[in-house]
């Protein structure tokens, strides 16, 4: 979560004053007792009402609570604000997993192009712990490069995604073979 905290802070530092005021207003609206921090109960109440069911639980609250004091100060709240505003609240769709996808994850290329997400943590993707109608997945960084190429034809794009995925897999196999360690 440290990287998300730092990213949220960087974005906040580059907001306009009006945008910073919006973040402060959201924080104040969640701070129902006005003590300058969000308790777990305030956090759960507001997020449940707003429909953020997957992150409205004590475990996710603890991930955002950097200092572990049981409250979110404004700086800690900025991580939540960033995740909500950037639509970065992603959770694994693998069987019963539901892990928060805070780093690298895999997404179905077809679903992404149709503006429906099917995302998997590396463990579920590697272990094939999912059922899905499509077979082409890329990690979020490879997907960004894939989309930057601007494939408008889905078939051409899907073929390129398969080629890219196979290229990545081949590269990993080569690295693993070249760096194999032996004690003899």
Question: Any idea of the CATH topology of the largest domain?
Answer: Recoverin, domain 1
Largest sheet: 3 strands, antiparallel
The overall average pLDDT, rounded, is 85
What is the count of distinct domains? 2
Q: Provide the gyration radius in Å.
A: 20 Å
Q: Report how far the terminal alpha carbons are from each other.
A: 40 Å
**SSE sequence, one letter per element:** HHEHHEHEHEHEHH
Q: Class of the largest domain in CATH? A: Mainly Alpha
Poorly predicted segments: 179-184
**How helical, in percent, are the residues?**
40-55%
Number of helices: 9
**CATH architecture term of the largest domain:** Orthogonal Bundle
Shape: globular
Question: By helix and strand content, what is the structural category?
Answer: mainly alpha
**How many β-strands, per DSSP?**
5
Strand content: 5-15%
Strand order of the largest sheet: 4-3-5
* CATH homologous superfamily identity of the largest domain: EF-hand
The protein's oligomeric status is: single chain
Keywords: Calcium
Pfam families: EF-hand_7
Protein name: EF-hand domain-containing protein
GO molecular function: calcium ion binding
